[in-house]
Specification:
Layout lengths: L1 E5 L19 E6 L2 H4 L6 H20 L3 E5 L1 H4 L5 H11 L2 E7 L4 H13 L3 E5 L11 H4 L8 H11 L4 E2 L2 E2 L16 H4 L10 E2 L1 H9 L11 E2 L5 H15 L13 H4 L14 H5 L5 H14 L6 H25 L27 H13 L4 H15 L3 H11 L5 H12 L16 H7 L20 H12 L1 H4 L6 H9 L2 H16 L5
Parallel strand pairs: 1-2, 1-4, 2-3, 4-5
Antiparallel strand pairs: 6-7, 8-9
Bound molecules: flavin-adenine dinucleotide (FAD).
Flavin-adenine dinucleotide binds next to helix 12, helix 14, helix 16 and helix 18.
Amino acid sequence: SKQLRLILGDQLNAGHSWYTEKSDEVLYVIAELYQETNYTRHHVQKICAFFAAMKTFAQALKSAGHHVLHLTLDDTQDFASLPELLTHLIREHNIGHFAYQLPDEYRLRTQLSQFCDTLSVTSSVYDTEHFYLANDQLGSYFKPDKRHRLEHFYRKMRGEFNVLMVDGEPLGGQWNFDSDNRNKLKAADLAEIPEPLVFANEVGDILARLKRHQVKTMGQADEHLLWPVNRVQAKSLLTFFCQHCLPSFGRFQDAMTGKLIELGEDRGWSLYHSRLSFAINAKILSPKVVVDAAIAAFEQSQGAISLAQIEGFVRQIIGWREFVRGIYWANMPKYAELNHLQATRSLPAWFWTGETKMRCLSHAITQSLTFAYAHHIQRLMVTGNFCLVAGIDPDQVDAWYLGIYIDAIEWVEMPNTRGMSQFADGGIVGSKAYAASGNYIKKMSDYCGDCAYKVTETVSESACPLNALYWHFMQQHHTQFASNPRTKMVYSNWLKKSEEDKQAVLKRAQYLLDHIEQL
Ligand code: FAD
């Protein structure tokens, strides 16, 4: 009998074993769905990227001889949800078997498994064949509620997949080169930053469709989308990265600059980062293809790419990316409710406009609204840090991150945001809260020089808000962090202050929190 195979928008893996054989008995379905456009308020470029990539993927499957039904929002508007659409298609096409690949999001995985329970036809579910670890391996690496550590997992992964290893030992005799990395960009470095490779994918029809169906979005878009939406583009971005960015990837991984954007130059927003996250998360590229290409470039570079650079990159993909996925699945659905620090404040409205006098935040948010992108340190140490020290409700922080970034899908967004950045999981994903004062921003960026606030001051009217908020946060969660070896030292500095000084800092912090919308 005829089989319907569902392909979700983030399952665009052309290498999946589904496609090795062609059959007239198999109908592939790729559908734009209203339910996917409104489970959070998405950046408009993010929806454009997914819809454009889905269309291209459908076309590619068709040209390869498969039977494919590509449905737009216009075609699916009468169906309130994915199950309703599928029920209709199963009837209309006389389907005897329903198959799908395991969704990476809890929301969709639950929806589809419940749908299958009610089906009168048979059904089956497949692995996505995308990650290093197959879905059914996760349980042996990750346990619910357990505090897992990246470093331990990462070393295991290196060994198991034989990545940058020699005779069972890490290449270069060291697992971690962080001390060689993490430089600030000096003025002379700015001229070297490569112009990012961008694309110009026509998305005018998608934008019109979003308007027609009154999809609420955020951020800016024009008719030309700069993100890669097919395998050829994704691969050329990967090649570009290996050639132009990988040689300095680790070195400037944590650096930030506002200078280039102010000069009207487009080079400052992604620096030496790969911008491959959308292509990888949509499964257009597999993590293995990316890692193998980067290692090949390293090996052929005759020393131009140092071990510290490639190790830093590999760590993000076989380490962090696989790690947060394991944490997500071991702890969902409970993870989405965790609020360990009991943060309840509302996200200030300027997160949706970028209109704040704090230059680091204004820059990170404006850039996110413009490009649907910010790099890791902007997400963790600028926007994330502000939310952490200001005590913003993690539900609101999650919703913002889940919407705004081109690569935001819950399985990867949530452990990073709620866990790593907001410490709302109480340390399941990370060993400390990534709280920082303005001094960290000063160390890693050129923002503070021209900021309306003074990073060297804490209690004055023009003092950097992050300073007082940081101390307020540390004081408030004293019992939590004073015994943590990674934060213990901070308290000795706080305790050295006189009672009067402490009160002045806390008073300033309270003033800032009371006027959070005006910062
Ligand atoms: P690069 O710096 O070039 O890194 C290469 C690749 O490594 C990335 O493409 C990504 O696949 C992977 N990677 C790097 N860091 C991480 C990480 N911490 N977790 C998982 N994968 C990682 N990443 C997402 O893909 N989706 C998200 O929704 C997301 N939300 C985040 C929220 C917060 C608060 C923080 C701190 C980080 C978040 N990240 C998320 C991780 C990281 O910031 C992005 O993967 C990265 O910025 C994407 O840009 P890039 O491709 O240029 O990355």
